[in-house]
Amino acid sequence: EAEYLVADLNEFFKEDEWYIEVPTPDRWYLHVPVKPEIRTHNISKVLDRAIGEYLPDGAEGKQWRRAMNEIQMVLHRNDVNIQRQ
User: Could you tell me what percentage of the chain is helix, strand and coil, using 3-state DSSP and rounding each to the nearest 5?
Assistant: First the structure.
């Protein structure tokens, strides 16, 4: 399932030269061509909290928040998740 989900994401972000590598179903790695100009938060500070204040920010924060929204939409309409519903 992870490989099938990632195939859709990799196709969607192909133009941006982003791709996700999935060495195991529970480890996904995003590769981008240029180091992003964002500030993120340690996962231990984000767990069990409302995500709004922990979204990426910085010079490219808006672009990354938009990308996160697009990822959510791609995953939502993927056949794997449609079958789960």
Answer: 50, 15, 35
- Give the separation between CA 58 and CA 13, rounded to whole angstroms: 21
Nearest-angstrom CA–CA distance, 58 and 61: 5
pLDDT in tens, 43-63: 999 999 999 999 999 999 999
The pTM (predicted TM-score) of the whole model is: 0.81
Beta bridge partners of 27: 24
Cβ–Cβ < 8 Å for 6, 22: yes
Sign of the CA dihedral with 25 first, then 20, 39, and 49 last: negative
